[in-house]
User: What shape does this take?
Amino acid sequence: MKYASSLSIVAYKVNLLLLFLPKKKMRVLIIGSGGRENAIAWKISKSPLLEKLFCAPGNPGTSSIAVNLSIDIKSFDAIKSAVLDNSVDMVVVGPEEPLVNGLGDFFKNDESLKEVNFIGPSSQGAKLEGSKEFAKDFMSKYRIPTAGYKSFDIDTIEDAERYIDSLKAPYVLKADGLAAGKGVLIIDDSQQAKRELREILTGRFGSAGDKVVIEEFLCGIELSVFVLTDGKNYLILPEAKDYKRAGDGDKGLNTGGMGAVSPVPFADANFMSKVESRIIIPTIEGLQKEEIDYKGFIFIGLMNCNGDPYVIEYNVRMGDPETEAVVPRIESDLLAHFIALGEGKLEREKIKISHKCAVTLVMVSGGYPQNFEKGFEISGASDLAGEMLFHSGTSMKEGKLVTFGGRVIALTALADGIQSGRERLYSLAQKVTYKGIYYRRDIGLDLL
Ligand code: AMP
Ligand code: GLY
Assistant: This one.
């Protein structure tokens, strides 16, 4: 007994010592090139635990805080060389595609990469985003609230048509696989839904449409909840609301996101505790029961239906532009959270979240999300150097910053309330100009 207690005193002292030993500083590589990766890089660049930051391929926004590595991120071997050549300790993956394609498994199985702290799920975990059918079956198995559904392939198309007839309009059709954000169709007319169903099942989205999930339409207000998990423990990051349509008043075409606000006023403590108990905990327990290796982000797209949360979708990454609103509200050290996550010790971390409101605006190219021109010179961005200006689709051409994508710049203002955040945001936004600049004027207006 005496022996045991003196042993525990020694263990306590060793732990105490470890706490005060200088931690090894990290060499971190962020994979991706959008506003989301720029925002994550911005946050990590402030960490006292950082030795050196790399982005692959990164963008002109990340180039001022990190070393951009111009590699093809579709090539796992190119990523491996970048990691080994630069003695990278940690890899943070921004987009879903490398994860769905198995980058996490590649790191786990390669002897020379085994020690690298990889922030992102295995390919099995990434199926939560990579296969709608898998995600819905997972939710159904673990009794996670979501819309009623069935899935079909070309051999069961007649059953699918009968299922459509059994539902009320509007009809929600989802291509099973990744379809560049275009795989969800919401259709009012049942005949049209049947035509679209046939088109998807006969190749409109290639093999991503080999199966189609048809589900009930959920009425309510959407929000996004983000979780960082080591597969056992989790931290809930700030929630956000995304503005998906191109035009003010949520009119016009669906886009990747025209703005975001965090926090979301209707996501009060009561609602968030339902999200935690009914969705987050069963999701993590489900992953464990399925023996799915999951270290990374889970982005839960939710519908608030009369005060009850329902899952619309899982993503295995952060959202864009939500990240540009979420990350500025995290006051604790995200890199420290990542280190703990890699060690499977996220339980020792406490996330500190600012009470301020973040309002994010995405400036896009005229014509986005349809055809747009690029290559226009951007002026005014350098005047906002001290602000939270994140590059999405920009490039350097002959020493000048030019537009390079549909979504060009994400700008965030942090303020005491949504109204003051909006005022500050839109006054900052006026400083940026380029030919064809367009942005919504109503980000956050509905939440006042
Ligand atoms: P996703 O591409 O999965 O993000 O879905 C696109 C959008 O479709 C979501 O953001 C929702 O607005 C909408 N949506 C998806 N599933 C449903 C559903 N079952 N009921 C109502 N809206 C939905
Ligand atoms: N803004 C939505 C997404 O990142 O999927």
